Amino acid sequence: MKGVHFLSAFALLALASSVASAYDPSPLQDICVAIDDLKNGVFVNGKFCKDPKLAKPEDFFFTGLDKPGNTANQVGSNVTTVNVDQIPGLNTLGISAVRIDFAPYGQNPPHTHPRGTEILVVLEGTLLVGFVTSNQLNNTLISKVLNKGDVFVFPIGMIHFQFNIGKTDAVAISALSSQNPGVITIANSIFGAKPPINPDFLGRAFQLDVNVVKSLQAKFWTTN
Question: Is the pLDDT of residue 117 over 80?
């Protein structure tokens, strides 16, 4: 239990440290709590901000990251996101976090964060993780097996993944250098696009029979 507390503290430290090199533009004010009321806000970096004098503790607070996510799904994982949508006070601060729960042999499929670098710390279990470099670096796979207490970094924009290779549940916490890093799950985006991408085009692009492409589109259409 002490180990989990220590690793949680380390994850929070990583979050704090990433502010210094945040990808999002640096704020020009102390705080900018996001607000949906356009009449009473000022537009700043993607969100409207309330009057700083009206800020309250709840604007900077989230609870529940200690609770396991439901991994009863096709990929056997669950991502609990804590970004500007959950904590309005994160607006303009260039930072966010996620909790990732894995069932045995569960995976966080290949995906990318277009607006943020990710640093991940394993709290429980054993994960095989990795990212693939761009065409410029010959699409090299950078991969590592992580155990409890290990840390790994996924550079901004790189396609990456996590896979629980153990027989027990696994848990990881990640910090990302954006208030809203976004996520593009590769298979879902390609084969689950709405409306669907022309299957003949995808067949040639992926060197697949067009019927295989149509089968994949039918599967991802319902899960995207």
Answer: yes
